Amino acid sequence: MQGSRLRQPELRRRRPLRPPAGQGWGEWLEVQLCVGSQLPSLSLLQRKMLSRRGCKPEVLILTMVGIGGLLFLLMTNKGEHVMKAATRVSSTGPPPSESSSVTNISGFADLPGHIQDFLRYKHCKVFPQLLDAPDKCRAAEGSPGVFLLLAIKSSPGNYERREIIRKTWGEERTYQGVRIRRLFLVGEVRDAREAWKLNQLLRLEAVEHGDVLQWAFLDSFFNLTLKQVLFYSWLEAHCPGARFLLNGDDDVFVNTDNIVNYLLGLRGANDGDGHLYVGQLIANVGPIREKWSKYYVPEQVTATSSYPPYCAGGGVLMSGFTARTIYKESLGIELFPIDDVYLGMCLQKAGLAPASHMGIRTVGVRVPSSKLESFDPCYYKELLLVHRFVPYEMLVMWQAIHEPDLRCGKKLQVYQSI
Prior knowledge:
Number of helices: 13
Strand content: 5-15%
């Protein structure tokens, strides 16, 4: 989306920090420090002054120790992970261009701005990737691959939500002998100044956690479908062996333990190689034509009066087989502004159907009486996913459902049923 995409400065190639052949480390470091040949920010006069004054021995020693430590870090596996996690990936092609066909759309000028933008750039499915995690699904030889990949749609500014998820239901761990891994999917904000700050924040998160995928497109509600398509493309290239995926928003509460237990219960019938796509099923609905609605889709976007069955986008659990199928079908389906409907379109084209799971509640938990507390952990202990939670509620509920002395009147085990 050329009109909304924020341009990023290209990284300059730097000469390697190592001495040339035939020169020792000590001699090379002294030259760099005293003459400043590797310090492009210094003026010629400053370099001459450094050369005349010389370098104090203690400064030279301390600097050598610091550089040595940095080199050691970069040579270790952790250092390699840090560099790869925050890798900026260059664009593989020219920037997306505006579609000229919008001039032929009747009533285009009267449409809201975000819908005009969608129509201008809906043909664009390739954007530069800014942050990557290419080794997310790599496992040591002989170790099991990723059993459950948590793909969480987030916005750049939602730092608190991401941090709470990392500490609670999104923690990367091994549970019941299977590996759980986590990724956050983000774009960019429109304002250039805010984008610069938030991109630095995301880069810091990527360095520390190695769990951020970011692309250079405007992160907005109508671009959630684009975010999904870019993620499924990444999945096909970097994590095709993931057995199952949870694809959801960053304001949902997930009982990851129950999800793993549910999926392990499918062993034999479905080990990730068969169709699975469950959530809160929505059927027999169509586009909302009221302009005030967040979900407003005018006839200029689609003339159809009905949507295929789909699961609400707050949280969907699927197999690796189904995720790969969605990717393949998405290659031949143009973008649609409502992301969960778009995934339903991909399933329909593949001849697959979404299913309802009573443990996934994307409209919250309804209690039988207004006198009862809906935030009671007994309502959440046996569920898979609930939308929506603010960050502190996630932390409180995660601790509450794991209290060993928690006693509830009836054990529902709804995670076992579809």
